[in-house]
Amino acid sequence: MKRRDFIKGVALAAGAMSVGLSASEAKPNISETARSVSLQDLAKATNAMPEITIYTAKKFLTMDPTNPEAKAVAVVNDRILAVGSLDELKAMAKGQPYRVNHSFDGKIVTPGFIAQHVHPFLGALALESAIISIEDWDLPGGYVKKARGHDEYIAHFKEELAKLDKKDPEKKLPLFTWGYHQTFHGKLNRKIMDAIESKRPIFVWHRSCHEFILNSGAIKLTGITKEFIDTLRPEARAMTDLEDGHFWETGLFGVLGKLAPYVATTDQFRHGLKTFRDYLHRQGITSASEPGGVISKPMTEIINSILGDESTPFRFYFLPDGKSLAERFVDGDLIDETEKLLSWGKGKCSYQPKQVKLFADGAIYSQLMQLREGYTDGHKGEWMMTPELYAKAFRKYWDAGYMIVTHVTGDAGLDMMLDNLELNMRRNPRYDHRTTAVHFGVAQPDQIKKIKRLGAIVSANPYYVTALADNYAKHGMSPERVKRMVPAGDLERAGVHFSYHSDMPMAPAQPLFLMDCGVNRISTSGKVSAPEQRVSRMAALRAVTIEGAYSWRMEKEFGSIEAGKLANFTILEENPLTVESRKIKDIAVWGTVLEGKVLPVKPNAKPKSGKDTEESLVSAAPFFSSGAATFGKEDDHFMEHGDCVCALNHRFALAMMDAAQKSR
């Protein structure tokens, strides 16, 4: 790093602070500002300057292409002052008080990881349960090992019951587990569970989140009877099996009001949010977001009370659910109603201004995405918003200057999004609109070119390939068509901005795991799915740092290690750019820095065994259903058209709030 570059950085930061601008906003005047600030001026100013903290590390991976690596970073309060070597930063401080922090020596420091898309409600409930799942979970309370095969699952199941028996010998407290999947764990039903325990209520929540299995104790506790099931709509009744204690898809939501008081209470949610908070910190996350969350002020206030607290080690952002708003206000005050939500945030939780989420086609886990060539078994995809409603909402938000984020999973769904984008660009051109395709389940080469030409960006879920490619090659699609799942390699070659997300709990919210999925594309069979669609390590690291920030229009504030940006860092034990590619997911997170505050993660109760295989971290599960679900209530369109986790999140949250209201 050159001396004059440091002076520019200091002058830039000082000038920006004096007029209330960020360093990035001041960049057009760097040369002029640097000339106007002499060394003598800087020397005089240092007497009144705050103390500098200079952090050293084995290496800083900055994500700044003009200065990609460094040995030290100088921080003042919550922002980065300069980037270089220790000797350079000490020499260039010019008498300003400073101290050197060697906490990160021997470690790799990246920009703070970004969880671009998570669901705190469903994530909190899953983490609040006893996890007996198909993959390992690195939790704040300990490392939960996977259960594989029927015998292993039942053994873990009995262990959880034994723990609860010690705590509650009278068997009044229910056991609530999450993570079961029949493909890996074999058959499970009411009869099998009753043979183990029939008195204590047991609620088994499926790994896909779309199913519940209850034992007789739980059936009795909830009051689910044949007479009650007979009152449900035919579509719901068809997806219930009282004898097996099995309720799925539409049938699950038909009985959700009975389940919610026991599996989704506000107390469980609050406690689960604390675990969710600590879980995200363990993964090195400094910023997270829920696009299209539940439009419920009481729900938002609960989230604010935990994630918005000043002790939370990250910032959390919401994007309004434009689908729900459009269904009510598309012909009225849609924009005004959307902007009312901006005041709902508190503390470290806030709504992103001028950003909104719309929905195209159905869930990829339910195999309800809209595909150009349809499905090999003849079933049909679904629209979450009708093309007519989507077009009207897109136009209104476009003309109001919004960044429009669209849930889209299939290539035909992507066609709808891109066609609307092109139409509105031709009608009312906009610069830097950043229209975003979220999930990006299946896409074709011509669509990649169109995304680039129209200036759109992508937020992709690389776990889809890991979890679904093998299964979908046999069911519903084909080996050749599966190669077009999440074609991020094409995005990288085309120069399209793309970020990664987990959609937790659909995938673990672990940025290093997502990087591993994108770099390797290893399916559950252990084979590489479409090797040409693998991305470079640098692109994968950018996808969980600077590109995540770019997808929120926050890249001027964080996402890279540059002068004037917030001091948000993730500290790693190994370098994800040089470690063996199959070990990226196993890199340990030492901690984070959030806005200048050093926040080590707490050690786990049990370390990793180091013996994980691809199968321990992925699901080969057939998560899809044979068709869409239907309901007969106000918000039934969610489950009637597409059945995605956002819809699931919505229905669960409303059921919890309704149960809480009735209990008062």
UniProtKB/TrEMBL annotation:
InterPro entries: Amidohydro_3, Metal-dep_hydrolase_composite, Metal_Hydrolase, TAT_signal, TAT_signal_bac_arc, YtcJ-like. CDD domains: YtcJ_like. This is Amidohydrolase 3. NCBIfam families: TAT_signal_seq. It comes from the Bacteria. Keywords: Molybdenum. Residues 105-599 form the Amidohydrolase domain. The keyword Secreted does not apply. It comes from Nitratifractor salsuginis (strain DSM 16511 / JCM 12458 / E9I37-1). GO terms for molecular function: hydrolase activity, acting on carbon-nitrogen (but not peptide) bonds. SUPFAM superfamilies: Composite domain of metallo-dependent hydrolases, Metallo-dependent hydrolases.
